[in-house]
């Protein structure tokens, strides 16, 4: 699903830590929890227990509600919905959200 994203060229003025967070988020759909089948961990922002923290971060976390203010489509698979959300949110808003609430590692 990552291949559905548009090419990503952050502005050179963007904070390198923010760029790192953006890349991590975009590539984060196969997090360590899913790859190793370990128990779910709580979200570091809202303490919700989620199997997929990247999907929680994009689709459900109260701390990232701004990401979901822009028009997007709901698909049967959450990973596709998350891609839609990330495709609709303006880059500057995305950068502000990940700077304030770092995505799961
Ligand atoms: Zn959360």
From TrEMBL:
This is Uncharacterized protein. It comes from Chionoecetes opilio.
């Amino acid at each position: 699903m990552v291949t559905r994203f548009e090419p990503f060229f952050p502005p050179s003025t963007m904070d390198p830590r923010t760029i790192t967070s953006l890349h991590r988020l975009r590539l984060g759909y196969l997090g360590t929890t899913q790859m190793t089948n370990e128990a779910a961990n709580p979200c570091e922002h809202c303490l919700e227990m989620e199997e997929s923290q990247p999907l929680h971060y994009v689709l459900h976390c109260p701390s990232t509600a701004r990401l979901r203010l822009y028009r997007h489509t709901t698909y049967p698979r959450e990973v596709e919905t998350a891609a839609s959300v990330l495709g609709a949110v303006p880059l500057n808003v995305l950068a502000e959200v990940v700077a304030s609430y770092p995505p799961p590692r």
